[in-house]
Amino acid sequence: MHEKHRERVKKRFLSSGLDDFAPHNVLELLLFYAIPQKDTNEIAHLLLDRFGSLDKVFDASVEELKEIKGISDHSATLIKLIPALSRRYAIEKNKEGLVFNNVDTMGQYFVSQYIGVTVETVLLLLLDNKFNAIDCVKIHEGSVNSCEITVRKLAEIAFRNNASMVVLAHNHPSGLPIPSSADLYTTQQLRAALNLLGIKMLAHIVVASEDYANIMDPKVASSAEHRF
Fold first, then answer.
1. Is 0.90 surpassed by the pTM of this model?
2. Which helix (H) or strand (E) element contains residue 170?
3. E-assigned strands of 18-141?
4. Could you give the C-alpha distances from 95 to 30, 49, 138, 167, in angstroms and in order?
5. Which is deepest, 41, 112, 144, 225, by most CB within 10 Å?
6. CA end-to-end span of the chain, whole Å?
7. From CA 163, how far away is CA 221, in angstroms rounded?
8. Cα 210 to the chain's mean position, in Å?
9. 3-state class (DSSP) for residue 195
10. What is the mean pLDDT of residues 157-183?
């Protein structure tokens, strides 16, 4: 009976996808491939009871996941693989033929880059003079106004890659894509300094979940200033 149930769940997924699956059924199916001899339905319910939703299960740390009865290193690794794989898939699928000459393209690109990222992370997109991507580099994990984010560091990376334009980005893992006063100040300082070095900073994108905003957009900056 146990084996027949697993086969039914697998066939259901293959015939109609995950759209009609309840969150616990999604986790149950996933855990089939890490826990071959146990009832994964019960473990799926325990995960959701602890973390509250499917996305929060995937965002939990390995240590937190292993606190759940039935979750081992093996199954925790499989769970953490899903957001990382989703991010890699989205980046690979969307990278071909992109020309970064508008904020929407930049925003959607960085939304893909931040799938499953649960700590604030600063990225730098390097572009040639035709708005084509050269590379995207992780600058720092932590606040965008950290001392780690310096003009010298950004300029060195840009010069080393022969980039004439850059787009800075960071995420708000647990908030809204609304810049802080520190974000605004740092953006203004970096933009002005890079411009003197002949490197054009096109945008500073802040991402929260699937939403994004450009800090360099006067409307966004003005709205943020009024909050402080």
1. no
2. strand 165-171
3. 121-127, 133-141
4. 28, 37, 17, 15
5. 144
6. 61
7. 26
8. 9
9. helix
10. 91
